[in-house]
Amino acid sequence: MAERIDVAALLANARTGARDSHFAHMNPAFAKLVELIGFDRTYVRGEGQYLWDAQGRRVLDCLAGYGALALGRAHPVVTDALVQCLTLAPPAWVRWELNPLAAEAARRLTLQCGGVADRVFFTNSGTEAIEAAMKFARQHTGRPGLLAWSDSFHGLTYGALSINGNEDLRRGFGPLLPGAAIVEFGDLAALERALSGRDVAALVVEPVQGKTLRTLAPGVLQEVHALCKRYGTLVIADEIQTGCGRTGAFLAVHHDGVEPDMVVLAKALSGGFVPVGAVLVRSDIWDSTYSSMDRSVVHSSTFHEGPLAMVALLATLEVMEQDHLAARAADLGESLIRQLRAECADIACVREIRGKGFMVGVDLDTSRIPSFAKIPMLGRITEPMIGQAGIMQLLDGHSILAQTTGARRPLLKFVPPLIVNEGDVQAIVTATAASCRALASGRFYGAMGAVASNMLRTGLGLSRV
User: Is 13 inside any structural domain?
Assistant: First the structure.
């Protein structure tokens, strides 16, 4: 009989050989990038909104697993619920039963979201949920067309990639899904032209774009919804990153008073503990796909509705409601944006501070940042590194982990756990202003020096200290 596995020992051994295993068996290009930018730290502990590395340095995590860790790490309520679930061991994936945990999760989720989308299909990820929504839309309308905005991000599987508004991510994977097209963000005239042929099944929209942090002007989403309704096109709200309270409401579309035909959720839906996604679907759309008993499993998945995922989802909804995390994101997020605007007002390279709730972006004007961007042959590779230089400064100089997005121009992006406090907000403001001032005064060259040093260090096989 197999012996008990010592997970602590397993983890310790895995950390020792992680670099070699990544290069040999995973993604060497990503491993090289992590080393070059100096992010090859070993994190040994995570609790709440903080990480600790092997040297004992505490880092404020404003990346939060790309927004999935809305409750931070190791939240006691969700952890306890999962331990109980493992101990009780309810039978998983029986399939030919009426799954009680999934039924309760669907009931609670529809109550939380409100609106007309009252049926739920659970998935294992956000991109899977987008794929399901696209199928539901095509089946209901009988149309092939699918639209999304430029710079949008809806996932990287084939259907989701086909409506991904980032050309760099689509390049080399064509031909993509026939009937999928991209419309310039917010261009209502172009949208109406695309809809006028009455062959578009659905428009997929992010209420706040994950890559650019842009939102439509007040009232425009309502106009978009009205246009789609006029031409018989469904509206799918991609709330994978914006949903579950991040923007200050459980669904970001509710800021605009819009009720979409379908809503897609994932990331924070389980607090980041267990992969889970969901598509909330209007009942008549649902019935077009699941139209009879012999088609009752026409769209399904082996691992959806697992007990750990459903318990994590239910526990996360409970925490969000009891701790008023959406209201917290609204109040502290507004404070973060207001303070960033004030502190960065005199920094020439800061073009704009934008976002909603705890989904905040600092748009950089690279023409105001000393760099190699104007040197022939170096400009194209320099542009994305400018934003990365700011992110390196935030981590190395201020112990804040964030990200830079790659859509058209650099943007420093912050999506911290919803549990951050006023002190954390102040730390983000102070560090961001200091990092942007450093960029404006030539810090980019220092960052490139650090990259060169990291190239030498990793080339010699030296460990990071």
Answer: no
Residue 123 in contact with residue 278, Cβ under 8 Å?
yes
324-373 pLDDT tens trace: 999 999 999 999 999 999 999 999 999 999 999 999 999 999 888 887 76
Please give the Cα distance from 155 to 148 (Å, whole number). Answer: 12
Work out how many domains the chain is built from and give that number: 2
Our measurement of the distance from residue 413's CA atom to the centroid of its chain's CA atoms, rounded to an integer in Å, reads 11
Question: Are 339 and 296 in a shared domain?
Answer: no
pLDDT at 184: 97
pLDDT tier for residue 382 given thresholds of 50, 70 and 90: low
53 forms beta bridges with: 43
Look up residue 310 and give its two tokens: 């459903």
In-domain check, residue 464: no
* CATH code at position 375: 3.90.1150.10
Q: Is the domain of 279 the same as that of 420?
A: no
**Measured in Å, how far apart are the chain's first and last C-alpha atoms?**
42
Asked if residue 432 lies in contact with residue 394, where contact means CB atoms within 8 angstroms, the answer is yes
| Residues 6+ away with beta carbon under 8 Å from 342 | none
User: What is the reported pLDDT for 378?
Assistant: 60
Q: Are residues 355 and 288 in the same domain?
A: no
Residue 183 is part of a domain; what is its CATH number? 3.40.640.10
Which CA distances in Å does 102 have to 305, 405, 454?
A: 6, 35, 48
Coil vs helix vs strand at 388: helix
Q: Are residues 123 and 304 in contact, defined by beta-carbon separation less than 8 angstroms?
A: yes
End-of-domain residue from the set 322, 347, 381: 322
Going by C-alpha positions, the residue among 99, 152, 98 that lies closest to residue 130 is: 152
pTM exceeding 0.85: yes
Is residue 192 situated within a structural domain?
Answer: yes
Do 41 and 125 lie in one domain? The reply is: no
Task: Tell me: do 212 and 354 sit in the same domain.
Answer: no
DSSP 421: -
CA–CA separation, 61 and 69 (whole Å): 10
HEC profile of 255-282: HHCCCCCEEEECHHHHCCCCCCEEEEEE
- Torsion angle, alpha carbons of 135, 141, 142, 144, to 10: -60
For residue 65, being part of any structural domain is answered with no
Domain that holds residue 35: 18-47+325-459
- Residue-wise pLDDT for 15-71, tens only, equals 999 999 999 999 999 999 898 888 889 999 999 999 999 999 999 999 999 999 999
Q: How many CB atoms lie within 10 A of CB 198?
A: 12
Residue 254 identity (one-letter amino acid): H
